[in-house]
Amino acid sequence: MSVLLPLLVAVAVFSGATAYQSMRRRRWLEERFGTRRERRSVSENARLVRARVGRPLERTEARLAGTRLWQLTERLLEQAGLRLRTAELFYIVGAGDVLLFLFVLAAGESFFVAFLLAVAAAVGVRVWLSLKAARRVRAFEDQLPELLGSIAGALRAGHSFQQSLQAVVEDAPQPTAGEFARVLAEARLGRSFEEALGDLSRRVGSRELEFALDAVVIQRQVGGSLSGILDIVADAIRQRQQFKLKVRALTSMGRTSARLLLGLPIAVALLLSVLNSSYMHPLFATSAGHSLLLLAAVLLCLGAFALHRTVDVKE
């Protein structure tokens, strides 16, 4: 028995090593001499999978593309620079809300609390998307005067507008480099330069960019010194940005007070829920408490709107 056991172990190890070497050799032969038919079948399967996944997305877009919320979300995705379709975001947020709702119900909370958390999660995604889009647009506007000055310098050196834009975009930071590179790619594919610039203005949603592109389009139609116009536009945008910074500095105290006033009730409610859950239980478990929570949410929204209009200074 003492001799048979090492023999069996040796046979098992040898058989495993032989099978592993055979599997490696077969895999190498398949990768090295794989037939075109096998590769075609793999590509066809991938195409079928993409078609099955994309079919419900296309149906959702066809039904909801005309709604205002859908168009606003699509514009926010473009402004935020996310490579994500509106239908994909819709299904991701919907699936996340359903899972969160079921998890809260399984944890023993009431239907109202689960529904409230699901709505809060969806609103949180919307707020995050708006903040990301606003941050990207602000970065674009900060880089725009320098970009226009560089294009004006290239024009004075004797280049055309497209050549100047191509030379500047190669060294420009993001997001200006990506957006103007898309304009150049559309122009190479046969789209008119004016249409590509107009689509850029709509996609970014910046007033400064709209002002600069209007000047470029008018110059291309009526003629004139484009480099001089771009220098004037860049100087005007710098002055507008300095004015914005001054306005933000003057209204910083009001904006901070508004955030504190809006966040204080929510913070107190969360703190009391953690420290003394029985004290807050009637607010979340009774119909009267649900009505009070709904009234508080409406009043908070009205207060946020009023405070925003108070500290929002038109340029």
Summary of the model, kept short:
Among the domains are: 138-250, Up-down Bundle (Receptor-associated Protein), CATH 1.20.81.30; 252-315. The protein contains 13 helices and no strands. It has 315 residues and is an all-alpha fold.
Give a verbal description of the structure.
By secondary structure, this protein is an all-alpha fold. Among the domains are: 138-250, Receptor-associated Protein, CATH 1.20.81.30; 252-315. The chain is 86% helix and 0% strand. The protein is built from 13 helices and no strands. The longest helix is centred in the middle third of the chain and has 46 residues, at 111-156. The chain is elongated and about 75 Å long. Mean pLDDT is 76; it is low at 1-21 and 31-42.
Q: Layout of helices and strands, plus pairs?
A:
Layout (H helix, E strand, L loop, with lengths): L3 H30 L2 H29 L3 H13 L5 H21 L4 H46 L4 H9 L6 H13 L4 H12 L2 H16 L3 H25 L1 H24 L1 H9 L1 H25 L4
Helix pairs in contact: 3-5, 4-5, 5-6, 5-10, 6-7, 7-8, 8-9, 9-10, 11-12, 11-13, 12-13
Terminal residue distance: 94 Å
Give the class from helix and strand content and strand pairing. mainly alpha
At the fourth CATH level, what is the homologous superfamily of the domain at 138-250?
Type II secretion system (T2SS), domain F
Q: Any low-confidence stretches, pLDDT <50, length ≥5?
A: 1-21, 31-42
Which fold name fills CATH's third level, the topology of the domain at 138-250? Receptor-associated Protein
CATH architecture label name of the domain at 138-250: Up-down Bundle
* Large-scale geometry: elongated
Alpha plus pi helix count = 13
Helical content stands at: over 70%
Radius of gyration: 30 Å
How many strand elements? 0
